[in-house]
Amino acid sequence: MPHLDAAFNLARCLMRNAHDAEDVVQESMMRALTYYRSFRGDNARAWLLQIVRNTAYAVFNVKHGTSNPANDDENTLADLPDLSDGPDILLMRKEHRAQIARLLQGLPIELREVLVLREFEELSYKEIARITETPIGTVMSRLSRARHLLADGLSRESISHG
Amino acid sequence: MVETETCKMALLVQADFDGELDAVQSMEMEKHRAQCASCQRSYAEMALVRESLQAASLKYTAPAALRDSLTRGKASSKVPVIRRLAWVGRPALSFGLGAALAASVMLAILPGRDNGLVDQVLASHVRALQPGHLEDVVSTDQHTVKPWFDGRIDFAPPVKNLIAEGYPLDGGRLDYLAGRPVAAMVYMRGKHPINLYVWPSPGAADSAPSNHTRNGYNMYNFVHNEMTVWVISDLERSQLETFVQLWQSVN
User: Does B62 touch chain A if contact means CB atoms closer than 8 Å?
Assistant: First the structure.
């Protein structure tokens, strides 16, 4: 199933625990099936990610009566993605990795989502704007702010992967 | 956090970093950065963040159980729709040459600079997989693909056909890597496209293939007959390695 990893990654970054993320992806896939006939674009991944994002916000709304999936999960680091084999592992020690994960998860949701869509999914500003239903200018300033906060955190904890 | 004074060009510099600008704008941003300490700092900051995120491999993949339950399908009547979804993201292999060429020229001028070559190759591969971007010349015949590069590129890339070995040539296109135009050839293994990039490295000695993994893609790079070669695919490593060995052994 294509784009499932992308869908799960976004859900996982938004929801902050694996169980809720799986629920969001299940629900999103059902929605994608239902609405597929109305899909007219050429980027199915971006379209699916938009559904995931909307579903994540909706699910969170139902659970917590707030539209902002806030930091609610104490074990964000319990299920860091498995490192597949490969030379990249050697680049960074485990605790540095956990620190960076923590910094990312510590970003406000609206900053975190643009950063994840840009850096992990490599989507264009236009696609990110559509997914998050915000103007491109807002995407750009959020992205800038997200990076700045992360860089700040990195230098504070003097994390380097060298 | 102390808000340092930011340049009014900061968001444009960021757009340049993200490959959102055309060549002219991008050059202007480069000139601007050369004389703006604040933008130099933020550019370095963006690169550091990108590197750190990538080096940390924080991208989650779907748990097997979730994948299984979705693939098996809740309601069997809906399964065909899932399959249809699967096709949307696939490259349109027979896309019109003119449009594809135009698109690839557009894309060719937007490489993420200051990324390592591994990232550039990955970005190029991912871009190429977008519908209509995979090939400019669609042909399974190396005698069609090879002349196509004449006049488009300042070297004659080795074009090999490995159809008998199960890796048919599917076409070629121009791409832009390591700050220069390169020849990109597409081979298929089943439904998995393999992008092979070649450019000349005069005087370089042959080297053994070295393996890289990034975002679930496997890559090999090596020097062969004074040509630098990069190979990338979502194929599993052993299959891609076999492809590399075949490619090196065939003339």
Answer: yes
Helix (H) or strand (E) holding B37: helix B37-55
What is the CB-side half-sphere exposure of residue B32 using CA atoms within 13 A? 20
Given CB atoms, is B55 within the 8 Å cutoff of chain A? yes
Contact A125 B18 (CB under 8 A): yes
CATH of domain A4-160: 1.10.10.10
Residues A143/B20, Cβ–Cβ less than 8 Å: no
Of B14, B243, B224, whose CA–CA distance to A119 is shortest? B14
Query: What residues form DSSP beta bridges with A33?
Result: none
Provide Rg for chain A, Cα atoms. Answer: 16
Angstrom distances, CA of residue B124 to CA of A148, B168, B213: 27, 21, 15
Instruction: With CB atoms and an 8 Å threshold, state whether A154 touches B67.
Output: no
Measured between beta carbons, the chain B residues lying within 8 angstroms of A91 are: 55
> In which band, very low, low, confident or very high, does the pLDDT at A40 lie, cut at 50, 70 and 90?
low
Give percent of chain B above pLDDT 70: 76
A-chain residue closest to B19, CA distance? A124
Indicate the residue of A2, A83, A101 with minimum beta-carbon distance to B86.
A2
Q: Where are the domains of chain A?
A: 4-160
Nearest to B60 among A8, A33, A140 (CB): A8
Give pTM, 2 decimals.
Answer: 0.52
What one-character-per-residue DSSP string does A25-38 give? Answer: HHHHHHHHHHHGGG
- Under the banding of pLDDT at 50, 70 and 90, the label for residue A87 is very low
Q: ipTM of this model? A: 0.80
Buried b (16+ CB within 10 A) or exposed e, A35-73: ebeebeeebbbbbbbbbbbbbbbebbeeeeeeeebeeeb
